[in-house]
């Protein structure tokens, strides 16, 4: 079985991808299992892995991979492949990566027409068995850490309480909206840095997790809420959103740093903070909008940039895990190897595509010329 990894470290739409779909460790394990691994020259450089490291691990490093694309069995990607890439793949080749399928209808339909089998890592179910393959959670955990560090770097004060000869400096107040994987890691990081942390989530079931990390859970009565079977927060009604924003206003105004992590699976993120609310914060305060590049939680945030809105620094970088590209690559590569390992048959030396398996049934979105994921088909039809 031939596995191909291309160099994605080229600028696309103002972004440079620093991560790689494999690490030296994952390549070694693939080669040990009998897989042939071909890595395009420079693919790991931006994440700290020079070509020679992959060669030493047993991979072949090529500069031009057009011929390899035509006979590769599996293409491992960080992001969805360009048309110039997937049109060279043979029929039934397996593409694995962040496809962003709900917002890439044209690409998904084109890949289905090419009779490619596409596995979107975003669609891997959040189950105990699939946990080791859950790339979204791995990258979100790193994002939670990075967002706190980015906020701390822009804040003109320190985070911990400090006793000095000139007096005592009070700890910074941080308010985190959303206590999913990213939010919980942000809470843990902020507490380690000595800040006072308050968090809010529409799912009261996570209050215990927030408090176990040392944070205070802000309780807001907005009526019935809940979470999906995959652990994502359900979308709120307009009335609930208004109640939520009204109740959060005081907490936001009293905070030095606010971090928003609210994202809805397969939908645009909700706007949580208006410009009017930002104006209530102290000058020099910092807001980090995790969802800036996909629609934004904060009015006035600029995708990929740091903006100043009503005297408040609003950070909307996106691609948060790329700030720690080495760890992001290692974690993502491990997730992909665990996925391959789960379905690799040593006897036939092939990836076993059992569409009855719950993991593959949920994450494989195109196969045999069709879009196979029912949730995706409904979204495309506007149901």
Fold and architecture overview:
- The chain is an alpha/beta fold.
- Helix content is 33%, strand content 20%.
- It has 13 helices and 21 strands.
- It has helices at 24-32, 51-57, 66-71, 83-86, 105-113, 135-154, 181-192, 207-212, 238-253, 275-278, 325-343, 358-363, 374-380; strands at 2-5, 11-12, 15-16, 36-40, 60-62, 74-79, 94-98, 117-120, 162-164, 167-169, 173-177, 196-200, 216-217, 257-260, 286-289, 306-309, 312-315, 344-345, 350-351, 364-367, 370-371.
- The strands form 5 sheets. Strands 5-4-1-6-7-8-20-21 form an 8-stranded mixed sheet, with helices on both faces. A 7-stranded mixed sheet has the order 13-12-11-14-15-17-16.
- Helix 7 (181-192) links the parallel strand 11 and strand 12 (196-200).
- Helix 6 (135-154) runs antiparallel to helix 11 (325-343).
- The chain is globular.
Shape: globular
Radius of gyration: 22 Å
Strand-residue fraction?
A: 15-25%
Q: Helical stretch count?
A: 13
Q: Termini, distance in Å?
A: 39 Å
Mean pLDDT: 93
Query: How many β-strands, per DSSP?
Result: 21
Strand numbers in spatial order across the main sheet = 5-4-1-6-7-8-20-21
Largest sheet: 8 strands, mixed
Percent range of helical residues: 25-40%
Find the structural class using helix and strand composition. Answer: alpha/beta
Point out poorly predicted stretches: none
């Amino acid at each position: 079985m031939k596995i191909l990894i291309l160099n994605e470290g080229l600028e696309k739409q103002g972004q440079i991808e620093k991560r790689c779909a494999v690490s030296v460790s994952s390549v070694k394990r693939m080669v040990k299992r009998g897989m042939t691994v071909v890595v395009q020259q420079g693919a790991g450089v931006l994440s700290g892995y020079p070509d020679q490291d992959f060669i030493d691990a047993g991979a072949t490093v090529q500069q031009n991979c057009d011929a390899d694309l035509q006979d590769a069995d599996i293409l491992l990607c960080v992001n969805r492949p360009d048309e110039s890439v997937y049109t060279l793949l043979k029929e039934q080749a397996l593409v694995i990566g962040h496809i962003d399928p709900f917002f890439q209808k044209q690409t998904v339909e084109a890949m289905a027409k090419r009779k490619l089998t596409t596995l979107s890592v975003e669609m891997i179910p959040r189950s105990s068995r699939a946990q080791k393959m859950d790339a979204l959670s791995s990258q979100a955990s790193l994002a939670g850490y990075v967002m706190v560090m980015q906020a701390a770097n822009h804040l003109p004060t320190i985070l911990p309480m400090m006793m000095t000869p000139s007096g005592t400096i009070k700890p910074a107040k941080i308010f985190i909206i959303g206590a999913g994987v990213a939010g919980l890691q942000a809470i843990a990081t902020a507490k380690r840095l000595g800040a006072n942390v308050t968090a809010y989530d529409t799912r009261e079931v996570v209050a215990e997790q927030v408090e176990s990390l040392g944070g205070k859970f802000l309780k807001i009565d907005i009526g019935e809420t809940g979470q999906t079977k995959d652990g994502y927060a359900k979308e709120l009604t307009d009335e609930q959103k208004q109640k939520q924003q009204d109740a959060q206003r005081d907490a936001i105004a009293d905070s030095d740093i606010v971090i928003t992590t609210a994202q809805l699976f397969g939908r645009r993120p909700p706007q949580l903070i208006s410009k009017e609310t930002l104006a209530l914060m102290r000058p020099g305060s910092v807001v980090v909008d995790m969802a800036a590049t996909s629609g934004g939680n904060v009015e006035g945030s600029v995708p990929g940039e740091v903006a100043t809105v009503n005297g408040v620094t609003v950070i909307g970088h996106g691609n948060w895990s790329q700030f720690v590209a080495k760890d992001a690559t290692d974690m993502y590569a491990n997730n992909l190897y665990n996925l391959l390992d789960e379905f690799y048959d040593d006897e036939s030396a092939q990836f076993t595509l059992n569409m009855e398996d719950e993991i593959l049934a949920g994450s494989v979105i195109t196969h045999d010329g069709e879009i196979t994921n029912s949730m995706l088909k409904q979204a495309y039809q506007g149901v």
